[in-house]
Amino acid sequence: MAQTEKYVLNMGPQHPSTHGVLQVQVELDGENIVGAKPVMGYLHRGIEKLMESRTYVQCVPFTDRLDYVSAMNNNLGFCMAVEKLAGIEVPERAEYIRVICAELNRIASHHVFIGSLTNDLGSATGMIYAFRDREKILDLFNIICGARMTAHYIRIGGVAADAQDEFLRDTQKFIDYVPEMLDEYNKLFSGNEIFQARMKKTSIITKEMALKFGMSGPNIRASGVDYDIRKIDKYGAYGKFDFDVPLGKRGDNWDRYMIRMKEIAESAKIIQQALDNMPEGPYMAKVPKVLRPPKGDAYHRVENTRGELGFYIVSDGSTKPYRVHIRRPSFVNLQALDTMCKGMLLADAVTAFATIDPLMGEVDC
Amino acid sequence: MWGKGLITGMKVTWGHWFGKKETVYYPEEKLPMTERFRGGHLAFDEEKCIGCKLCAISCPNAALDLTVSVDENKKRHMESYVHRIGRCMYCDLCIEACPTKAITWDKNYEFASYFKEDMTYDALVEARNRRGNNE
After folding, report:
1. Residues of A with CB under 8 A from a CB of B
2. Quick check: helix, strand or coil at residue A73?
3. How far lies A270's CA from each of A107, A167, A168, A303, in Å?
4. Which of B11, B13, B34 sits opposite A146 (nearest CB)?
5. From 3.30.70.1070, 3.30.70.3270, 3.30.450.40, 3.10.129.10, which CATH number describes the B40-134 domain?
6. Distance from CA of B135 to the nearest CA of A (A)
7. Measured between alpha carbons, how far is residue A180 from residues A114, A125, A196, A225 in Å?
8. I need a labelling partner for A174 at 20 to 30 A (CA). Which of A159, B48, B78, B84 fits?
9. What are phi and psi of A73, to 5 degrees?
10. A192 burial level (CB within 10 Å; 0-12, 13-18, 19+)
11. Are A192 and B6 a contacting pair at CB < 8 A?
């Protein structure tokens, strides 16, 4: 007589030389998933602890290594938290440059999402298209700060260097190209019947579930919760720009994909407004060479590409932070993986994992 | 009609048979590095350096190991300027800290090595070699 039993499959990649190392222990009943347990810690570097032994200025390059595909947003979060703590006023031009860079980085990060999603669904071609366009943004970063991914461009009190005309001109060129780019993606992926069949009505997260899990970013907006910190807190120069927050209805994989496609268009809209109204003036505030914020603590959150990124800094009045805690959106969002995978087929686990869009540098910190 | 989306997608990919190439033939063809590019070894200028060690102090990972000597006129001289690439984050803080702009990036990104020892070099020795070759 045939005997059946559940078994556990370890999904990788788990080799230490790969960059995003996450192990998912998938419990299977035939091809149906009974449970999925993420095992993390492979990429843990102790960034929070490292920051305690560095000065505030020296901490900034470490934030690049958290969510390494949207480094500008991480820089922004940390610098704004320190500015809040030390009471530093940032010049207006710097605020605008920061918004341009953060939004460009959001688009680049969504390119990685689209690329890795299509690759995971079996279309390697899709990845090449997304990465071709991401390259255009990385080239822009190379012009403005000399690095492609680990930017370290946004600094405490402003930005490292002024935006050159070349950068602004090339950014405008890219923004003009965005509608054409999205049209091509829609033709290539969104209209594809196989793509739609794999994405629609799979791994649904309802509004209630998303709130219970404490999810944020495009993942919670796909479930229909209007939660965008750029709109709620209006930090930096975001209050001056007009943009919409796209929302999903069902909270399935398809909605999580479409939200990001719409967000690319919205980010382009913000950048266009920032380029049109770019003020003149200094790009850096007067920050003391030896920065000693007063005793106390500060929490600042920004809308990272993946959700709510928060920095909690405690100062003891010395040149180094007493304690830094980082609220990482990928880590919190990853909790939903088990619920998303239950009752799905094994192949859907890959899709669910790709649409949560976790970045292991941020999960493990 | 089922399959219409697939055909539209195929048209996009076929269209690229006739487009401009997006890639270059590395290493025959190389992309130019930008003015602010951070990467490569540190190009050290012995004449500009005043031996203040601000670069080493500003480094978050202690990647710079400097030896400075003081002569009888109390003038500081650099004896060695060791840069450990394995520790370097290319954050640019050392270069920004330098009051006399004595260090810059040499922008040569082709320095991958097989051995760990090759990841440590003396920028002062490299600068002297470069000057010797030029003279």
Report:
1. 54, 57-62, 64, 125, 132, 135, 142-147, 150, 152, 160-161, 184, 187-189, 191-196
2. helix
3. 11, 16, 14, 14
4. B34
5. 3.30.70.3270
6. 31
7. 16, 18, 21, 29
8. A159
9. -65, -35
10. buried
11. yes
Q: Chain B residues with CB inside 8 Å of A64's CB?
A: 89
Q: Domain extents for chain B?
A: 40-134
Fold exhibited by the domain A44-364: Cytochrome-c3 Hydrogenase; chain B (1.10.645)
Domain residue limits, chain A: 44-364
Tell me the two tokens of residue A354: 């790709």
- Bridge partners of A284, per DSSP, are A158
Which of B12, B34, B89 has its CB closest to that of A61? B89
Predicted complex: ipTM over 0.90: no
State the amino acid at position A135 in one-letter form.
E
Look-up: residue for tokens 């009045």?
A317
Contact list, B63 vs chain A (CB under 8 Å): none
Q: Do A355 and A253 form a contact (C-beta atoms < 8 A)? A: yes
Mean pLDDT by 10 residues, chain A (365 residues): 81 70 86 88 88 92 90 92 90 92 93 89 86 92 90 90 90 93 90 87 89 91 91 89 90 91 92 91 88 91 91 92 92 89 86 86 84
